[in-house]
Design goal:
It is a single chain. The chain has 337 residues and is α/β, with parallel strands linked by helices. It folds into two domains: 2-115 and 298-332, ATPase, nucleotide binding domain (Nucleotidyltransferase, domain 5, 2-Layer Sandwich), CATH 3.30.420; 127-293, Nucleotidyltransferase, domain 5. Helix content is 44%, strand content 18%. The chain contains twelve helices and ten strands. Strands 3-2-1-4-5 form a five-stranded mixed β-sheet, with helices on both faces. It has a five-stranded mixed β-sheet with strand order 8-7-6-9-10, with helices on both faces. It is globular. The structure holds adenosine-5'-triphosphate (ATP), magnesium ion (MG) and fe (iii) ion. Adenosine-5'-triphosphate (ATP) binds at residues 9-10, 135-138, 162, 165-166, 177-180, 183, 269-271, 273-274, 299-300. Adenosine-5'-triphosphate is lined by residues 9-10, 135-138, 162, 165-166, 177-180, 183, 269-271, 273-274, 299-300. Belongs to the KAE1 / TsaD family. This is tRNA N6-adenosine threonylcarbamoyltransferase. It is an enzyme of class 2 (transferase).
Length: 337
């Protein structure tokens, strides 16, 4: 099945063509340079950038793949969760194409898209599995059962882990996005220098809390400054903060897998790029199989949306022109799909 995918939920404008588990082309335009000077994503600017870039990327896709769009079986677009203005641009563009080419159109839950990204990297992967979905907007543990039903079994009760990386980076005077910067400088730091708290680590649930970490880092910086230390041990602070986050993520994910008797663990989202996280997985490889898709399918992209939409199109689903974006999909549809 040949599906055109469109993703505009946050700050990546992406359009892709996917044939079953094969990605023919996945074009991703990151708006990061545009938002960098504001220290975070500005929703209004994101929407405008999507509007500018989508037609350009679509023309590029047609030109590079040489595929006649009349031959596709359907169109899949992210319907949420995400920034409402940004989502509206993608959904409207997809509707335009659905009319122009007279094709079925399905709205895809962005989180479900992240789960399906794994089939692009690992076509042999079969449920059940546990997903650790870690990005700038989400920190979730998902349980995917034999029939691909997805259940959220854990989530951050406050900040997403990527957000926590970004906030700690800002405190340390590092650039945006902070995750990759913390990752980089932590390699020369000692993760044991500062014993930052690991909230909820031993709670019986699978939830997380990351908002306290930035406060702990802030207090530590203040303490060091009050003690007359002029040059802050940035690398040790970064490495210790990173270690605290990763310890909780890995402990809770493996606990979930153990509790449900599931051997396969899948990583998704931008934070899955973290080198320390990947390194520490080695401690658990005797018990579990880990699936870590390449970063192009971990961070936001339209190929994963096309692949998830394919499952809906195969079931004969067509949302047509009635499709509406929903920024808070969790509230609307609950915890299970
Ligand atoms: P969502 O997918 O939830 O809508 P998003 O688009 O912001 O949100 P991604 O693009 O998947 O999420 O991930 C971006 C986040 O990943 C940022 O917070 C960034 O700091 C973090 N990140 C990227 N690389 C690394 C890394 N190597 N280590 C830690 N964090 C990282
Ligand atoms: Mg992003
Ligand atoms: Fe995402």
């Amino acid at each position: 099945m040949l599906v055109l995918g469109i993703e505009t939920s946050c700050d990546e404008t992406s359009i892709a063509l996917v044939n079953n588990n094969d990605v023919i082309l996945n074009l991703v335009y990151s708006q990061i340079q545009t938002h960098k000077k504001f220290g975070g994503v500005v929703p209004e600017i994101a929407a405008r950038e999507h509007l500018k870039k989508l037609p350009i990327l679509f023309s590029q896709l047609v030109k590079e793949t040489q595929i006649d769009i009349n031959e596709i079986d359907g169109i899949a677009v992210t319907k949420g969760p995400g920034l409402i203005g940004a989502l509206l641009v993608g959904v409207s563009f997809a509707k335009g194409l659905a009319i122009r080419y007279n094709k079925p159109l399905v709205g895809v839950n962005h989180i479900v898209g992240h789960v399906y990204a794994n089939y692009l990297a690992y076509p042999e992967l079969r449920p059940p599995y546990i997903v650790l979905m870690v990005s700038g907007g989400h920190t979730l543990i998902l349980k995917v059962n034999e029939s691909m039903h997805i259940k959220i079994i854990g989530r951050s009760v406050d900040d997403a882990v990527g957000e926590a990386f970004d906030k700690v980076a800002r405190l340390l005077g590092l650039g945006y996005p902070g995750g990759p910067e913390i990752d980089r400088i932590s390699k020369d730091g000692n993760p044991k220098t500062f014993g930052f708290p690991r909230p909820k680590m031993y709670d019986p649930d699978y939830d997380f809390s990351f908002s306290g970490l930035k406060t702990s880092v802030l207090y530590e910086i203040k303490r060091l400054k009050d003690a007359g230390i002029e040059e802050l041990p940035i690398k040790d602070l970064a490495a210790s903060a990173q270690e605290a986050m990763i310890d909780v993520l890995l402990h809770k994910t493996t606990k979930a897998a153990k509790d449900f008797g599931i051997e396969n663990i899948v990583l998704a989202g931008g934070v899955a790029a973290n080198s320390r996280l990947r390194e520490k997985l080695a401690e658990y490889t005797l018990e579990f199989n880990f699936f870590i898709p390449p970063l192009e399918f971990c961070s936001d992209n339209a190929a994963m949306i096309a692949r998830a939409g394919m499952a809906l199109l195969e079931d004969g689903k067509n949302d047509g022109l009635g499709l509406e974006p929903s920024p808070n999909l969790f509230e609307m549809i609950g915890d299970e799909w």
